[in-house]
Structures are given as structure tokens and as C-alpha cells.
């Protein structure tokens, strides 16, 4: 089946935590997806890096499957998606953002190794499927979603964007619990 | 039903300029990871969440409008992003259940 003829849906959806680590010696950043109930915060040495826990967010992973041909694209190499707001003309993603018209949005597919020193980025096959998936139901002629791999970023650590991750949920629900208590007190 | 008509019938006030379009369903969640995988295009998203990440997810899924319940107010940069995306942002004094019940009375 040729490109653009698939009808994708999300499959193998896994909830978990996106855990971000950093190496204080070289400044490298890394992330991994954990399905444990509590995200691991262990510090450990791996080759020349000492990885230290920097934070975690509730997140989700998924694969894409075509309902017409049954083909599945494994997106295990993608740890998240980020809406790019990069305007850096020296960055390929920034250039792409500046080229887009109103209604066209660039999302960066984030892989585990932001330095791309040791691991591959999100696969070409995965990026193609993501682009097809997020555009397949768009009816407005002026709307478009462009998904690119994070290896196109000049520096993912400095790149400007909004990562799709659950931030502030604890604060959100502690606020509502406080509201309930206030109401109960009258 | 269009976004503007639904807003009028449920007493919502828009807090930004938005693209008026047909609403085709409802999704309720406070988790952006859940919205990304389960919300459908052209739906109403009912949530407590006001973070920018909410708009990044809602835009990717192509939701028609976001109703933030319990009178929670998003920050200016969140409103600005939603406006750029053409997503209608509304606030309601009701809680999630109260607002959703009103939608069922409208046939959703």
C-alpha cells in the first residue's frame, strides 16, 4: 500500500511517566518512558555519564495501526510530542515554523536521546505515519499539522516549544480538594 | 450545532476570538495525555486544566472548543495560543458534571 493511503488509528496505548535525566558532567539530557506506578528516581552511572533524575510527567505512548491493511507502525522510539514555537532562523525546525502559514502547526516528535549521540531518533516510517494520522481528519483547507523528528532541532535542550505532558495535576487536584474543604466548613 | 450556538444555549461566555464550526461530540478529561489519545476532532473538551500544554494537545487533536469549568481562568499566553489555533475558550461556573448534564439536555 502506498504512502497516504492508510487509515491510521492509535493502538497499544500505554500510560506512564516520561522521566527526564541529566548528566551534570557534560550537560547531556536523556529521557525514558516508565510504566511503573511511581517513576524511578535512581541516580546511576552509564559509561561516561552519571544520570541524575531531573523530573517526570505523566505521559502516554502509542503505536499506529492502519484499519485498511492492518500494518502497525511501532512508535516505541518516540517519547513525546512538542508544539514548536521555535523562531531561531539557525534551526531547521525554527525555519520550518517561520515558513508555515496561519493554521499550519509544527510538532516535534521527541526521542529518548536529545543529544542523538548514541541512539537513533524517531524513525522515518514513524514520522510519515504520524503526519498521515494527524492530518487524515482535517477538513479545513488552511489547516495542516507537520510532525518532524527532534534530530532536526539545532539543540532540543534550548528549543522553544510546549511539550504535551501532564504538568501541575497534583496542584490542580489539591486546589479542588481545598475548595471542597472550604465549602464543607461553610 | 455550531460553537457559537452551543455557547449561547449553555450560557457560556467566550474569552477569545474563535473559528465557529460544527461541534460533533464531547470529551471530558483533565489529562493532556488522555486528550491526545482519546478526544475526537471537532469535539467539545470539558476540563479543569488551564495549562498551555492543554492547548497544544487540543490543537493537535483538532477539538472545536474548550470549556474550563469551575470558573478557572487561563493565563494570557494560554488564551493567545488558543486564539491563534482558532479554538474557542470558554469558562463555566458549573463543575464538570453540571456542565456535562446541560449538554445531555441539548442532545449530546
Could you give the topology of this structure?
The complex is a heterodimer of chains A (186) and B (108).
Chain A: E1 8-22, E2 29-34, E3 44-46, E4 49-66, E5 72-73, E6 80-84, H1 92-99, E7 104-110, H2 124-135, E8 144-149, E9 161-163, H3 169-185
Parallel strand pairs in A: 7-8
Antiparallel strand pairs in A: 1-2, 1-4, 3-4, 4-5, 6-7, 6-9
Chain B: H1 3-10, E1 13-14, E2 25-28, H2 32-38, E3 43-47, H3 52-61, E4 65-68, H4 76-85, E5 88-91, H5 96-105
Parallel strand pairs in B: 2-3, 3-4, 4-5
Antiparallel strand pairs in B: 1-5
Largest interface: A-B, 30 and 24 residues
The number of helices of chain B is 5
Strand content of chain B: 15-25%
Number of helices of chain A: 3
- SSE series of chain B: HEEHEHEHEH
Uncertain segments of chain A: none
What is the number of independent domains of chain A?
1
Span between N and C termini of chain A? 64 Å
**In percent, how helical is the residue content of chain A?**
10-25%
CATH topology of chain B: Udp-n-acetylmuramoylalanyl-d-glutamate--2,6- Diaminopimelate Ligase, Chain: A, domain 1
Structural class of chain A: alpha+beta
Amino acid at each position: 500500500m502506498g504512502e497516504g493511503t492508510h487509515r491510521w488509528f492509535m493502538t497499544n496505548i500505554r500510560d506512564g511517566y516520561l522521566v527526564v535525566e541529566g548528566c551534570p558532567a557534560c550537560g547531556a539530557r536523556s529521557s525514558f518512558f516508565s510504566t511503573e506506578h511511581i517513576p524511578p528516581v535512581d541516580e546511576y552511572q552509564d559509561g561516561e555519564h552519571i544520570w541524575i533524575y531531573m523530573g517526570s510527567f505523566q505521559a502516554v505512548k502509542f503505536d499506529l495501526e492502519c484499519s485498511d491493511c492492518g500494518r502497525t507502525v511501532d512508535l516505541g522510539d518516540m517519547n513525546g510530542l512538542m508544539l514548536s514555537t521555535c523562531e531561531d532562523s539557525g534551526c531547521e525546525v525554527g525555519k520550518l515554523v517561520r515558513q508555515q502559514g496561519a493554521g499550519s502547526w509544527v510538532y516535534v516528535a521527541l526521542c529518548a536521546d536529545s543529544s542523538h549521540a548514541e541512539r537513533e531518533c524517531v524513525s522515518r516510517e514513524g514520522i510519515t505515519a504520524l503526519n498521515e494520522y494527524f492530518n487524515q481528519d482535517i477538513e479545513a483547507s488552511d489547516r495542516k499539522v507537520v510532525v518532524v523528528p527532534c534530530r532536526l532541532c539545532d539543540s532540543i535542550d534550548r528549543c522553544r516549544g510546549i511539550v504535551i505532558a501532564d504538568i501541575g495535576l497534583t496542584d490542580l487536584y489539591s486546589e479542588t480538594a481545598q475548595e471542597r474543604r472550604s465549602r464543607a466548613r461553610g | 450545532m455550531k460553537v457559537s450556538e452551543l455557547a449561547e444555549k449553555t450560557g457560556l461566555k467566550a474569552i477569545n476570538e474563535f473559528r465557529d464550526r460544527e461541534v460533533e461530540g464531547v470529551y471530558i478529561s483533565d489529562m493532556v495525555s488522555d486528550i491526545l489519545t482519546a478526544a475526537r476532532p471537532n469535539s467539545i473538551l470539558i476540563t479543569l486544566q488551564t495549562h498551555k500544554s492543554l492547548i497544544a494537545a487540543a490543537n493537535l487533536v483538532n477539538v472545536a472548543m474548550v470549556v474550563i469549568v469551575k470558573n478557572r481562568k487561563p493565563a494570557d499566553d494560554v488564551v493567545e495560543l488558543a486564539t491563534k489555533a482558532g479554538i474557542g475558550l470558554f469558562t463555566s461556573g458549573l463543575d464538570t458534571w453540571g456542565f456535562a448534564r446541560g449538554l445531555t439536555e441539548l442532545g449530546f
